[in-house]
Amino acid sequence: MSIEALVTLRSSEAPNVGRDRIRLLEAVAREGSISAGARHIGITYKAAWDGLDAMANLFGQPLIEARAGGKAGGGAHLTPTGLRVIAAFHRMEAEMARVVRALEPELSGTGVSPLNLMSGFLMRTSARNALRGTVTAITSDALMAEIAVQVTATTTIHALVTNGSVRDLGLVEGRQVVLLIKAPFVIIAPGTTPPLVSMRNCIPGTVRRCETTSVSAEIVLDIGDDRTLAATISARSAEALDLTECAEACALFDAAHVIIAID
After folding, report:
1. Three-state SS across the chain?
2. N or C: which end of the chain has fewer CB within 10 A?
């Protein structure tokens, strides 16, 4: 298997900068203008400027110097900072790929791939639930697609995304993904037989923990294969449902509330 590391640069004040925007910088440098660089990588002139502005915000200084048209025509070239950013970005990708390849022998036979390990270390999200799984089916109409993701031997979670997201994320059957579900979106129903509701996902399990304050409660449901789903509900609801440890319950949530992420 060919291993490739993908680096994303980010700050709290600016959008992410990844390989696509580095490709834009390289295209502008090669083509000699922003418009030609944008055409070369298949984006609009406005999108190119947005990307360049985002990079300037991230690094605190411009990476491109543009000149207005005239007798000699307009154009653009990279600043010294722009050249150094490109070189540093590719160096980081190469170093990360080297580290990931070096980890492969140590992880052999564990069921954990180097890419799983790296994404587990690097991923930060506000979603309480992050579950890795494998895409098993994709059903789409003119606008949307329902993605079935198997997260345990007996549990499949469904996500509803746009067809554009399917293309952008490269979603196909067999691809590993990470599902993100915020705990307040998860409803808990006692017992193994769920009520008749319109929720696409109904995941049976047993209560592993129920931590309650005066206002709220977090219910952690064991769904098998050492995987869990957490729900945030009111303390009054937790008391009414009598969700004691090892009690059987179901986690219900809409497919539109499931976010799909890729490594």
Report:
1. CCCCCCCCEEECCEEEECHHHHHHHHHHHHHCCHHHHHHHHCCCHHHHHHHHHHHHHHHCCCCEEEECCCCCCCEEEECHHHHHHHHHHHHHHHHHHHHHHHHHHHHCCCCCCHHHHHHHHHCCCCCCEEEEEEEEEEEECCCEEEEEEECCCCCEEEEEEEHHHHHHHCCCCCCEEEEEECHHHCEEEECCCCCCCCCCEEEEEEEEEEEECCCEEEEEEEEECCEEEEEEEEHHHHHHHCCCCCCEEEEEECHHHCEEECC
2. N
**What's the pLDDT at 191?**
83
Domains of the chain: 1-122 (1.10.10.10), 129-261 (2.40.50.100)
- Whether the Cβ atoms of residue 50 and residue 91 lie closer than 8 Å to each other: no
> What is the pLDDT at residue 125?
56
The pLDDT assigned to 256 comes to 93
Q: Could you report the average pLDDT of every consecutive run of 10 residues in the chain (263 residues)? A: 49 56 89 91 85 75 72 72 88 76 68 55 62 92 93 92 88 90 90 76 90 88 86 88 85 92 78
pTM: 0.57
